[in-house]
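Because discrete structure vocabularies remain unfamiliar, we first show an illustrative case, written as a sequence plus integers encoding its fold.
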Amino acid sequence: MPLGTLDSTPPPFFRQGPSALSKLVLFGALALLLMVADSRFRVVQPLRAAIATALYPLQWTLLRPIVWAQDSTHYLEALSTSQAREAAAQYQLGRQSQRALQVEQLLLENQRLRALLELRERLKAPALASQVLYDAADPYSRKVIIDKGSLAAVQAGAPVLDETGILGQVTRVYPLVSEVTLLTDRNQAIPVLDVRSGVRALAFGDSNANSGLLELRFMDSHVDVQSGDLLTTSGIDGVYPPGLPVARINSIERRADSSFARFSAEPLARAASSLHLLVLQNLASQLPERPQDDTAPPLAGKKGRKP
């Protein structure tokens, strides 16, 4: 048979079907169609849910060693942290118990000494729990509004404190709410006592509204006040009960050209973050009445006419 008579096309048994380019175009169009249909009509969502459900046991089994390792690490870290906190709490509890015993002993000695010297007992004021509603709208003052007013027996001038110290004083009373002026307000003042040296002073709100500090004014430069001294209420004004923490001295500025020094103190009460407060009853009702001055000359009446 001559070679020219042979057919060059492969027999049907070796034919490969469509070309690779046509397959690429077909499956690319199919994938694009499925993506558009899934994005618009969620047609593949049931199939995806079925595959995820079928593969979940396998995923859960493969992730168990990782989860167990993480849980073991967290357990060991939490155990060590808890043990450290427990040790610190036990130490703190021991110190607090020791101080409580000392305080009870000092209170007993104080009672005996006051009875011996016939001194009157410290003033005790009933307290009323309240909550801060919002800050006052005045940007030039430091005031907050609490949720107790005259209907709850709140009086103007009553001291207000949180769990760390004196916060301020009630300045305005309404039926349902009250306005509390903070100690850091520039128009507020409070008599204080240096616990270490026994020096009495008057603490004013700093004139700088953004400082949040107190200032001891009219103090001699040689007075026995040091940085870090604790200031408490002296109780001599009849408003604040004695012994309540107020502030701590943080800076002292003594000038050579002046006989007065500038003492700056940081309040202990958290004025910016305190939410629950205690409003004490005004102590004026517990103080004895001021004696009248009998030496003052009587008021001159109208002179009668001479006969």
In short: Confidence is low (pLDDT under 50) at residues 300-307. The first strand starts at residue 127 and ends at 135. The radius of gyration is 41 Å.
